[in-house]
Amino acid sequence: MKKGILFLFWTVFIILIAIQFVPTKHENPASDANLDFLVQNQAPIEIQEIVRNACYDCHSNTTAHPWYSYVAPISFVIAEHVEEGRGNLNFSEWGHYNPEDYSAILKQIKKEIQQEAMPLPSYVWMHKEAKMTSERKILIINWLDQIIAQSSATNEN
Ligand code: HEC
Questions:
Q1: 50-99, pLDDT tens digit by residue?
Q2: How far, rounded to the nearest angstrom, does the alpha carbon of residue 92 sit from its chain's CA centroid?
Q3: Residues with CB under 6 A from ligand 1
Q4: For residues 114 and 108, what is the distance between their CA atoms, to the nearest angstrom?
Q5: Residue 57 CA, closest ligand 1 atom number
Q6: Does pLDDT of 157 surpass 60?
Q7: Average confidence (pLDDT) over 146-156
Q8: How far is the CA of 157 from the centre of ligand 1 (A)?
Q9: CB–CB of 92/30 below 8 Å?
Q10: How many angstroms separate the CA atoms of 81 and 91, rounded?
Q11: What CA–CA distance (Å, rounded) separates 9 from 62?
């Protein structure tokens, strides 16, 4: 019995060591700051802070890479979130998106925030500053409504 537990312990230990050698991506692709979502939409400072804290680690090219993002298996989960997040929506690439799509993307962003689907709960658990308090939520939704109205007006021209 005791031998069995010891064997299990070493097996888990060796697997944990071995997976540290599996490479994971920690890249922040270079991008033109002028294409950034917050810059292009001239977001007020308090809005910039909320969106950067709540969304930019997964949805931009300016991801922060804390020490635990280098420790497997957490690193696998984080790398997956960043890859999928950027694939769905990359705020650093806003200027490259088709302006005809802006209104639809903005509405999707608003919906994700309202339904509390974004930021991902597991992320908020580790990042208190990303928490969508009711105050932050009101600020961000009001601002989104403003730029949705603007982008719809522009598209009608
Ligand atoms: C921890 C990483 C992470 C954070 C933080 C995060 N997202 Fe996401 N986001 C994802 C991932 C992964 C997906 C794709 C899978 C999914 O839809 O759950 C996604 C998908 C999305 C989508 C597309 C949804 C769809 O169904 O097409 C939108 C819009 C979005 N996120 C907006 C936001 C906004 C706005 C914030 C900040 C308030 C945010 N996200 C914060 C990881 C994140």
A1: 999 999 999 999 999 999 999 999 999 999 999 999 999 999 999 999 99
A2: 11
A3: 54-55, 57-59, 81, 84-85, 88-89, 108-109, 112-113, 118-120, 123
A4: 10
A5: 5
A6: no
A7: 84
A8: 31
A9: no
A10: 15
A11: 39
